[in-house]
Amino acid sequence: GPDSILADAADLGFAQRSGIDLAGERKGVLLGSVKRYVDARGASTWGNGETLNLSIGQGHHTETLINMVAFYSALAGDGVKRAPHIIQGRPSKVTRDLKLTAEQRADLRLAMIDVVKSGTATGDLAREVGLKQFQVAGKTGSAQVTGQRDMGWFIGFAPADDPKIVRRCE
Predict the structure, then answer these.
(1) CA distance linking residue 11 with residue 80, whole number of Å
(2) Phi/psi of residue 167, each to 5°?
(3) Is 17 helix (H, G, I), strand (E, B) or coil?
(4) Which of 79, 121, 81 is nearest to 104 (CA)?
(5) pTM of the model
């Protein structure tokens, strides 16, 4: 249910600062419980649709793009999330171990390769990011705010089997 999904998201470091070496970094908003969600929205219950939305990364929460890059860098690498940095050569501090096994990371990478090969990131998006010559692993997402224009994004890493590049685009 939603409480477990939100607890897992918090354990993975979502809605926390990435630790980047820039002043004033903001963090996303991850609702801590169904009760807080219900209170904030004025609704009386969560339906199954909300649980499904949360399970695919949708729903009423926000995340910063730099924190998403840090998460996918950890997923592409050794499973340890490190603070991104602007100054080349500055050592990154470890911010979180994702606690995913090598098998879990491999399965997630395969799923992300499928997103680019035959899923929501096929065709123009793969060409747009300029990485067609590599096997790319990626994830698409969208942000919808009532009354505003929807925004789509893609984050990926390449080569998928030995990542050197993590890139985000809108």
Answers:
(1) 13
(2) -135, 145
(3) coil
(4) 79
(5) 0.68
Are the C-beta atoms of 149 and 135 separated by less than 8 Å?
Answer: no
- Using only C-alpha atoms, what is the Rg of the chain? 17
Looking at this protein, which amino acid is placed at residue 157? F
- Where residue 48 falls (left for φ over 0; alpha for ψ -120 to 50; beta otherwise) is alpha
Structure tokens at 48: 């199954």
DSSP 37-96: HHHHHT-S---HHHHHHHHTT-SS-B--HHHHHHHHHHHHTTSEEE---SSTTPPPPEEE
User: Which of these, 110, 141, 115, lies nearest to 126 by C-alpha position?
Assistant: 115
- Consecutive 10-residue averages of pLDDT for the chain (170 residues): 81 85 83 54 59 74 82 87 76 78 90 85 61 76 73 81 69
> Environment class of residue 158 by beta-carbon count within 10 Å: exposed (0-12), middle (13-18) or buried (19+)?
buried
Region of 6 on the Ramachandran plot (φ > 0 left; ψ -120 to 50 alpha; else beta):
alpha
40-42-47 Cα angle (round to 5): 95
Q: Rounded to a whole number, what is the distance in angstroms from the first to the last CA of the chain?
A: 30
Q: What single-letter amino acid sits at 48? A: N
